[in-house]
Predict the structure.
Amino acid sequence: MIRFFTLSVLLAAFGALACSHADFSADDGDLSPLSPPEVQCDTCFYPVVMVHGFLASGDTWAKFHQRFTSNGYKPSQLYAFDWNSLNQGANHVAALDAFIDNILAKTGVLKVRLIGHSAGGGLGYNYLSDAARAAKVDGYVHIGSSVQSGPAGPGGSVATLNLWSPDDNVVQGGDISGATNVQIPGKDHYQIATSKESFAAVWQFFHNQPPNTLEITPESIVCIAGRMLYFGENTPLVNGKVEIYQVNPTTGERLTSTPAHTLFTDSLGYWPAINVDANVTYEFVATPPIPAQREIHYFREGFTHLNTLVYLRTIPPPTSLAGLLLAGLPNNDNQTVMNVFSASQAIIHGRDTLTVAGSALSTPQYAAPDKTAISYFLYDDGDSQTELTPVGIFGTFPFLNGVDMFFPTNPPGAISLQFNNRQLNVRNLKSSQGVVVGVFD
């Protein structure tokens, strides 16, 4: 059975949010259909559907989402399509088609604009290979994905922007004959989908003019919303609990014994929108609906702008590939199990610095350019020593690292994470209480 997200729920999560935001009143513009292969409308804000890549989720697009809304788009015009990139046997094209059909039916527009990153680019080309499906799309953006023989759509009928970087060490990019090609040097595999330079090229392609701003406009009160789902598989968790605590940025300690917000996910895993103060450090506790599954404690940098793509990933059952990958994480009172996640760029040796509890992890071993590491799982293998040797099977996957580090839980205290010139302090929680995740946006 094809599972897709009804637009009424999406609008509840991303459109008619239960908190204020000035961009919600942006002009929809002219929504009349355009004739491929040209994108000519300077004023129309067609819905934008964004498709993530391998092992990723919809929050890949948080920076693009924030720049779109900084330039006048409504959240209800921006859609992230979540799919299980580990399941190659599923009919992802049909699921994407149903997703787009829902958007068209509920909004009354005749076309969307489509963006695909990495493996999502392959899905985008497959989707557009059919004339009936291609007719629903006015403009396609192919980001950090494989070189194709021509623009998307039958006979190259869909206007296509091809964004690539010669410094992408995951996908060997290049120009696509007949497409609009933009090469952006110096960007890794994730930056090519998150950077302001990439956004500028996308906006120019969609609107035939530069954006008003490339910056994410700051706000004093920030509306946030998001989703709880399984890591890797993107299966939504229904009736999961989300608790949000304000924490001391220096110690990571909660400022109150009770959460500032307690929320529950709906039938598609979305938790409702709330207002939070800008530039305040928060801890998000994601509790799965199944009691035996582990809590995940997310410590995040302060929010500065509307973000409806705050994703909280939990550990799937060990019967799945992603579940097997995470099944070996320790679960005891003696040590903290941590994940450090860089949401918008890889950590590259010689360019970036990542230090955790004083130990450098941006080394040639763990931050080689061809590794394109964005996620580090840190825990001790049982001898209560930090040895900085590989642990688990994370190293066999792209983007992931597992490193032997011992974080004792007694006495209680903070663990310092430093990424380039940014610092985040998290608590040394017992792994029996859950897994700690430090997120650098």
Remarks:
- Confidence is low (pLDDT under 50) at residues 1-17, 20-36.
- The CA atoms of residues 3 and 230 lie 15 Å apart.
- The domain at 328-429 is CATH 2.60.40.2200 (Immunoglobulin-like).
- The chain has three domains: 7-207, 220-323, 328-429.
